[in-house]
Write a structure and sequence with these properties.
This protein is about 30% helix and about 20% strand. It is of the alpha/beta class and about 230 residues long. It has a single domain, classed as TIM Barrel (Alpha-Beta Barrel), CATH 3.20.20.70.
Length: about 230
């Protein structure tokens, strides 16, 4: 279920100019989600079912302007058909392919890997706080399995990323998440500032974010624990 396609983005695929495909619907209900219109399908109008052919035609028309494409959401792996879309993009274009996922569909993630070049996976909270962070929808077990899939392979680039929401995740939680996967060493970890202009839960709309210095201090602590730290403020 494809909601829309954004023709050009300079920020969604590190180091590349890309188009962004948005799927509608998500299996989680994270209260801090900044895309509520993609989570709650009932908030959408009826025009959210772009065909795969239409997507491929759009990407073909943009050849020369972009060198990559991102499939994001919502949660793309909510749909088995997303794997077929990734396959077609990989086979029918020369674009690099990035997949954004919440990590709760490890079986589909494994099937998608042959058709992707980059996977960005969310780590939303400490394992014991995952139920709260996902609106009561998921624990950490499936997320751990997806993380291990990425850690145990070498053909696809990846990053784990945490949006630093006060009351949901803190510095120590991130350190604990990194240590959760030892002795494996994480290739890239992105620390992202929480933006509260628009959130799934109205209770979080307008809530203060952590100060930039707090995130900078966390990034400094992570330098010795992961290969690459990305700070997105």
């Amino acid at each position: 279920m494809i909601r829309s396609i954004q023709g050009t983005s300079l920020i969604d695929y590190p180091g590349r100019i890309c188009s962004v495909i948005f799927t509608a619907g998500c299996n989680l209900a994270c209260p801090f989600c900044h895309n509520p219109e993609l989570v709650n399908v009932d908030l959408l109008d009826g025009e959210f079912n772009l065909s795969h052919d239409a997507i491929l035609n759009e990407l073909t028309e943009r050849a020369g302007f972009i060198d990559a494409v991102v499939l994001t959401g919502g949660e793309p792996l909510l749909y088995e058909s997303s794997i077929d879309l990734l396959r077609r993009i990989k086979e029918e274009t020369s674009l690099a392919v990035k997949l954004d996922t919440n990590g709760t569909f490890p079986d589909r993630l494994e099937k998608a890997l042959p058709y992707t070049d980059f996977v960005a996976m969310d780590l939303k909270a400490s394992p014991e706080n995952y139920i709260f962070a996902t609106g009561g929808r998921s624990g950490f077990t499936l997320v751990r399995e997806s993380a291990q899939i990425l850690l145990n392979q070498s053909q696809v680039d990846y990053e784990f990323r945490s949006t630093m929401v006060p009351g949901v995740i803190n510095k120590q939680d991130v350190i604990n998440l990194v240590n959760e996967f030892k002795p494996a060493r994480i290739k890239r970890y992105a620390i992202q500032m929480f933006r509260s202009e628009k959130t799934l839960s109205s209770e979080l709309t307008g809530m203060s974010s952590y100060p930039a210095g707090y995130l900078e201090a966390l990034a400094a602590e992570l330098v010795d624990l992961v290969d690459d730290v990305q700070l997105r403020i």
